């Protein structure tokens, strides 16, 4: 394994040998009648040490081991990460027998929300990747060596299954800003909006958790994937969660971004929740917040696309804990002026970050206000997280509904939640919304019923 803060060619394994072979279907289904893949059969393959994952509705990729690790910091962290990845690929020998998105060389990565955060970013090129897409399943191995070896099998790379360990009792305490004081943070945001400093700002808070036993990330991932199947369940370098928000997917010249902004808590009663969905869909405060977020994504994508499609009205996304206003913005990529290829998924993620859904509008003023009043370093919360392939295509979510396991003490965990603030926001209501958004990670660290 190599760790570096830049990407000099002499630090890259030479050559990187990549072999992708088809597997028989892993065999389990979550709903035998519907034929829905069970995400656990991918997640069950993971070892407890530094698992990597990007899974939704049973499809996705999981990985483990580190062939190469690149750490980056600063405003140019995305460009430096892509440079490192290109250096890896320049010394790669690849045999891909499956040829679908996620096969061949793959890197996982996550990045800090703020340019100045010491969390920076990390790119991990794994040793083993197992994936599934549309009923096709594959295995990729990545090794440093002079030549291709025999085709790998799952038995070659998966050790004896060790079930994930529950974290035991969990004690929660205030994070950087106590819950009661966070209402004052929101009030400061509202005051700035009414003073004309910003139109919208997203303010976040953290909660600290102390677990009885070291956190086994697989325990949390399996619970998240089963309870939130429509979200993207992810794990990269101790950052884990189930995000409902897709920052960008780039695939064969097509780009998609799922934008969420505007939230209401569910009651648990179906009839009441349907009524709440109708209220959300017609809420001027939430529609205003959503419009800012969608517009920011559309503007960011426009220079890279020959055409885009922005829905006229959002739909209501139903999750177990909350309801969101959601819009899927799509586009057809084109090569920017003076170039011959369209941008990579990581370059698109860099151009989109931070969206109004996690920062505010205007972006520069909102970022300055966050730094002034929020009272914490977000780390890699609300930053891009996901994967990219050799052709630059990939998927990047926004690290929401997430937590960071402390690298030095795996019994310490930071949970995060944020809320979009507009002129009509009420501090007490925003605090309640943040509590609703903490539910997925609280549940993920809980015991089985």
UniProtKB/TrEMBL annotation:
Gene3D superfamilies: Anthranilate synthase
GO biological process, one term: salicylic acid biosynthetic process
Keywords: Isomerase
Reaction(s) catalysed by this chain's protein: chorismate = isochorismate
UniProt record similarity statement: Belongs to the isochorismate synthase family.
Highest taxon, organism lineage: Bacteria
Keyword check for Magnesium: no
GO molecular function: isochorismate synthase activity
PANTHER family per record: ISOCHORISMATE SYNTHASE ENTC
Descriptive protein name: isochorismate synthase
The protein's Enzyme Commission number: 5.4.4.2
Class of enzymatic activity (EC top level): isomerase
NCBIfam families: isochor_syn
Domain Chorismate-utilising enzyme C-terminal: 180-437
Pfam families xref list: Chorismate_bind
Isomerase recorded as keyword: yes
């Amino acid at each position: 394994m190599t760790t570096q803060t830049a990407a000099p060619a002499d630090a890259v394994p030479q050559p990187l040998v990549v072999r992708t072979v088809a597997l028989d279907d892993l065999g389990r289904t979550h709903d035998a009648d519907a034929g829905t893949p069970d995400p656990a059969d991918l997640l069950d393959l993971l070892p407890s040490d530094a698992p990597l994952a990007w899974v939704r509705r049973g499809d996705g990729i999981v990985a483990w081991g580190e062939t190469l690790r690149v750490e980056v910091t600063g405003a140019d962290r995305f460009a430096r990460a892509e440079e490192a990845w290109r250096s890896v690929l320049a010394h790669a020998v690849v045999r891909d027998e499956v040829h679908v998105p996620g096969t061949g060389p793959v890197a996982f990565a996550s990045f800090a929300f703020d340019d100045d955060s010491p969390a920076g970013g990390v790119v991990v090129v794994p040793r083993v990747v197992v994936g599934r897409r549309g009923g096709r399943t594959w295995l990729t191995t990545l090794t440093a060596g002079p030549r291709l070896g025999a085709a790998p099998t799952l038995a070659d790379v998966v050790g004896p299954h060790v079930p994930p360990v529950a974290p035991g009792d969990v004690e929660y305490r205030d994070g950087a800003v106590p819950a009661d004081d966070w209402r004052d943070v929101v009030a400061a945001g509202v005051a700035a909006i009414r003073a004309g400093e910003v139109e919208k700002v997203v303010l976040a808070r953290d909660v600290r958790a102390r677990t009885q036993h070291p956190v086994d990330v697989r325990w949390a991932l399996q619970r998240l994937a089963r309870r939130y199947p429509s979200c993207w369940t992810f794990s990269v370098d101790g950052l884990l969660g189930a995000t409902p928000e897709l920052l960008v997917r780039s695939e064969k010249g097509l780009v998609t971004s799922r934008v969420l902004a505007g939230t209401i808590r569910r009651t648990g009663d179906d009839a009441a929740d349907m009524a709440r969905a109708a209220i959300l869909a017609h809420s001027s405060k939430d529609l205003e917040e959503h419009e800012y977020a969608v517009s920011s994504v559309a503007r960011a994508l426009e220079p890279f696309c020959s055409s885009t499609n922005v829905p006229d009205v959002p739909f209501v996304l139903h999750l177990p804990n909350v309801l969101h206003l959601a819009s899927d913005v799509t586009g057809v990529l084109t090569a920017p002026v003076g170039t011959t290829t369209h941008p990579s998924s990581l370059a698109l993620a860099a151009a989109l970050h931070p969206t109004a859904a996690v920062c505010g509008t205007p972006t520069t003023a909102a970022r300055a206000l966050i730094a002034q009043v929020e009272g914490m370093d977000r780390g890699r919360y609300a930053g891009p997280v996901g994967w990219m392939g050799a052709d630059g295509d990939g998927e990047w979510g926004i690290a929401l509904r997430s937590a960071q396991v402390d690298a030095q003490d795996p019994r310490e965990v930071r949970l995060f939640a944020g809320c979009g603030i507009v002129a009509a926001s009420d501090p007490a209501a925003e605090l309640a919304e943040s509590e609703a958004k903490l539910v997925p990670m609280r549940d993920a660290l809980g015991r089985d019923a």
